[in-house]
Amino acid sequence: MARLLLVMLLLVSAGCAPSPEAEAPDPPTIAAAASLRNVMPDLVAAWGDRATVTYGGSGTLRRQVEAGAPIDVVVFAAAAPVDALIEKHLADAASREVLASNELVLVGPRDQASELTWATLGDLPADAKLAVGEPAAVPAGDYAKQALEGLGSWDGLKDRVVFAGDVAMVLAYARRGEVAAAAVYATDVAGVEDLSVLDRATWEGAPRPEVVAASVSSSDRGRAFLTFLATPAARAVFQKHGFGPP
Fold first, then answer.
1. Residue 245: is it exposed, middle or buried by C-beta count within 10 angstroms (0-12/13-18/19+)?
2. Rounded mean pLDDT of the chain?
3. CATH 1.10.10.10 assigned to 104-200
4. Alpha-carbon gap, residue 172 to 178, rounded angstroms
5. How far is the C-alpha of 78 from the C-alpha of 136, rounded, in Å?
6. What are the tens digits of pLDDT across the range 61-76?
C-alpha cells in the first residue's frame, strides 16, 4: 500500500512540473533591413532576451509579410514599406515608430583614386557603372534614385546602373571594383577599410533616410521588443553604430 501511494505521489509531481516549453516561449521574429545587420545583434543583446532576426531588402521583406510569413515586427530602412503594410492592415499603425536616421553616401574602392561626387555622376564615363539597390525593393536604392532625380542625373545614368537586391550586394560590387561608385548608407561603411566615402548627400532637399518599425502580429514579446527599440538605451546603440536621431 505504501509503495502504491509513493508511485501516485511521483506521478502527480511529474504532472505538475512545468514543461521547458512553457517556461521558454518562442522568441519574436524580426524582419530587418539588410542595412541593419551590424546594429541589430547589439540591439537584441541590449534588450536582454532572445529574438530571431531575418535580413533582406525592405521591399522583399514587405512582400514576405504580405504573403503570410510568420513575422512579429518589421524594422525597415524607410517609411514607405512600413506604411504599405499599414494601409493593407498588415501592420499596426499605432505601433509605427521612427527609430533613427541615416545618411546616403557615394563610395568607391579605396585603392582606386576617384574624384566622383553626387553632382558629377552625370559625367560618368560611358563604360563606367554605378551600383544602386533596386529602388522598388531596397530603400537605399530608392533614396539614391530620388537624389539623382533631384540633381537631374537619373535619366542619363539609369542605363548604366547595376541594380542589386540589397545593400550587401551593392557593397560587394564596389569592393570588387566592378563599378566606379556605389550608393549606400554611411553606417554601411563605418569602419570599413577597403572602401572610401567619395561624397555625402547632405545638400538641401537631399533625401533623409529613416529607420521605421511596426508590429505585424499580436505577439506580446514582439511588441515588447518594439517598445524597447524606442527607448534611450536602444537609441544609444543606434548612435554607437553611426545612426542619427529620429
1. exposed
2. 89
3. no
4. 9
5. 12
6. 999 999 999 999 999 9
